[in-house]
Amino acid sequence: MAADIPTLTQFNLAEGDDGYLLEIGGSDGAVLRVAASAEQIDAIIEALDALLSDEDDAVDGFDDAD
Q1: Cβ-proximal residues to 13 (8 Å cutoff; 6+ apart), any chain
Q2: SS3 5
Q3: Average pLDDT of the residues of the chain
């Protein structure tokens, strides 16, 4: 990653009356708070799952080459 991009230091997800509240903090001390719907949280979960599944497939493929 680029040197000017803070690293993740905080991640919180809380359920509220109208959906969810995401808090994401960086090493620079900044905290981003956003409201998210259940559908948006599902989309985030699916995107992370797809990304992690792709990484697992790459690792599995490498192991098969041994």
Answers
A1: 20, 21, 22, 23, 41
A2: coil
A3: 87
